[in-house]
Amino acid sequence: MFVDNVKITVRSGKGGDGAVSFRHEKYVPLGGPAGGDGGRGGDIILKANEGMNTLMDFRYKRIFKAEPGQNGQIKGMYGRKADPVYIVVPAGTSVYDEDTGKLIGDLTEHNQELVVAKGGSGGRGNIHFANSKNRAPEIAENGEPGQELHLRLELKLIADVGLVGFPSVGKSTLLSVATSAKPKIAAYHFTTLSPNLGMVKLDSGLDFVIADLPGLIEGASNGVGLGIQFLRHVERTRVILHLVDMDPENGRDPYEDYLSIRNELGKYDGNILKRPEIIVPTKLDIAGSDERLKEFKSKLPDDVDIFPISSIQHTGVKDLMNHTSTVLQNAEPIHFDVENDDETKEYNYEAKADRLTVEKDGEHSFIVKGEDVERLLQRSNLDHQDGIMRFARMLKGMGVEDALIKAGAQSGDSVTILDFTFEFI
């Protein structure tokens, strides 16, 4: 099954907690603090693989989690860093933040990597908090929480040449004749329900990949028929083979069909119309098609690139493929709109400006909210008195105490930050 649009959730690993520990060794009086730092949590990394051509696997697994870093150890030993989690996607996958709609990155090359969620950094052990006033601190930091993102993966097939045209104009037949691909072929519209890829092998050695895209109809750019579902795959093709049916009994006008498809491509992405196009009149083995071809040509400008064929009789197919290869060699490469061109890209949340708020939740209870305050709580180790006192001092330095007093808090009232509640004094 061909799947080209999925939503997944990724969660990077939490950093390991710093340790509170002291040296207890013979002949080492007043050994001092020896708590090591926690290890970094695991990253979530997307990796492109040109051997894949569908996002089918993500229909069965949509949540990916990385392991947390190891906690700090005694004797100043650091915790082990967690291994990253690699998620393999097809080359040509665009990655979007589902919550904001922002393009995070575009994986277009084999083995290209994109870090979508960084693991949390490890907390510092008490070895870092010793000073001249407190030589035996019972203070350590918890590891930083990991990141969680909701992503939308959108696959846009990477093919050198794309076949476009109305349904039943012979795209699948041409693909089957020109390559070893075996697409479904039948005498009814919309036989092709998903893109098919094939490799055209030429005697010159200038091979290329060709994609048979599902038939377009008028209104496709607005979702009519198979609509915009597969128009995105035309974006990455460097040369367009526009197939036009010359069957005099099909009840349609070839020139109107040609203009209609061009119009839909332009509505979807105007850049597509700037790429080299070869017009391919098809079904010339049918009686009366020659007259229709002459009439069609008379309505086209003199400088158009046109190659009539009959896929059933294989007439003109080899010449078309050789000509397409020549056009492809001279075609401009497509520059993808991504943030940078580094082989490995990294995405991090854009932190919002912190806004400390205090809400009254009852006669004697208050709730404090704010990104910096919540982050402080998550990273504070409150198992020891020294850690609690440090947490209280830092809250005061952030202005939490003044904000609570301004909101009417009095000694004895309860204050809640996230899931932690304490008494205000």
Automatic annotation (TrEMBL):
Record: residues binding GTP: 165-172, 190-194, 212-215, 282-285, 310-312
Name this protein carries in UniProt: GTPase Obg
Domain OCT residues, every copy: 348-425
Keyword annotations from UniProtKB, A to Z: Cytoplasm, GTP-binding, Hydrolase, Magnesium, Metal-binding, Nucleotide-binding
Domain OBG-type G: 159-329
GO MF annotation, one: GTP binding
Chain sites annotated for binding Mg(2+): S172, T192
GO biological process: ribosome biogenesis
Organism: Companilactobacillus tucceti DSM 20183
Signal peptide start and end residues: none
Top-tier EC class: hydrolase
Superkingdom: Bacteria
GO cellular component: cytoplasm
Principal place of residence: cytoplasm
Cofactor(s), by name: Mg(2+)
Location of this chain's protein in the cell: Cytoplasm
Pfam families to which the protein is assigned, alphabetical: DUF1967, GTP1_OBG, MMR_HSR1
Functional summary from the UniProt entry: An essential GTPase which binds GTP, GDP and possibly (p)ppGpp with moderate affinity, with high nucleotide exchange rates and a fairly low GTP hydrolysis rate. Plays a role in control of the cell cycle, stress response, ribosome biogenesis and in those bacteria that undergo differentiation, in morphogenesis control.
Protein family according to the UniProt entry: Belongs to the TRAFAC class OBG-HflX-like GTPase superfamily. OBG GTPase family.
